[in-house]
Design brief:
197 residues, globular, alpha+beta
């Protein structure tokens, strides 16, 4: 009925406590990231749309996003029917952490011109390995392996599309330093949004 490997998993009573402990540590790391972002001058320089939460944020977790346990931090954040603006840090089990700049609707409006004018230059100069969803995909689909995420976006499209996302993935391994890695990625995104990048 079960393979040898599956039998080992089924009989491992320590797996769930270890998973819970790792997820709790991850939540602590994301909270540390939120605290670091809240006091970061690069992120504070962004002229977020009115109503954007730049102090509390939201930490969410679940067991079945694309079949995997997940956790995410939205900070800063504004999510409404009219618009989306902010940074989303997504952990998906087996896929590491993805740092996303997510703009849509009236949350994209204040940044359209800077994305169109500075995006290509920023993309060429950034040391990040990023992909862009230039408004073609499902705005709530976050796997960068999806075909809607491109390496070579047409940045001028930011003037006409309804959403724009930039994502950068970081694998988790013993040398991963959080929240430093995430903060550095969001500082790069901030440089783009303020026109400094």
């Amino acid at each position: 009925m079960f393979s040898e490997e599956e039998s080992i998993w089924l009989n491992d009573a320590d797996w769930f406590p270890r998973k819970r402990e790792m997820m709790d540590r991850l939540a602590g790391g994301l909270e540390s990231l939120r605290i670091a972002m809240a006091s970061d001058p690069w992120i504070a320089a962004i002229a977020w749309p009115a109503g954007t939460d730049c102090s509390i944020g939201k930490l969410s977790r679940g067991e079945n996003y694309q079949g995997q346990p997940w956790m995410l931090l939205d900070f800063p954040r504004k999510m409404s029917k009219e618009g989306i603006s902010g940074f989303r840090t997504l952990f998906l089990w087996g896929h590491g952490i993805t740092c996303i700049l997510h703009l849509g609707g009236n949350g994209l409006d204040p940044f359209r011109s800077v994305l169109a004018q500075k995006g290509s230059l920023w993309m060429a100069s950034t040391r990040l390995s990023v992909k862009v969803d230039p408004g073609t995909g499902n705005p709530w689909e976050y796997r960068l392996e999806q075909p809607d995420w491109e390496k070579n976006a047409r940045w001028g499209d930011a003037l006409r599309v309804n959403h724009w996302r930039i994502g950068c993935s970081t694998p988790l391994h013993p040398g991963t330093v959080w929240p430093v890695n995430g903060l550095e990625i969001y500082q790069q995104y901030s440089a783009l949004l303020t026109g400094a990048g």
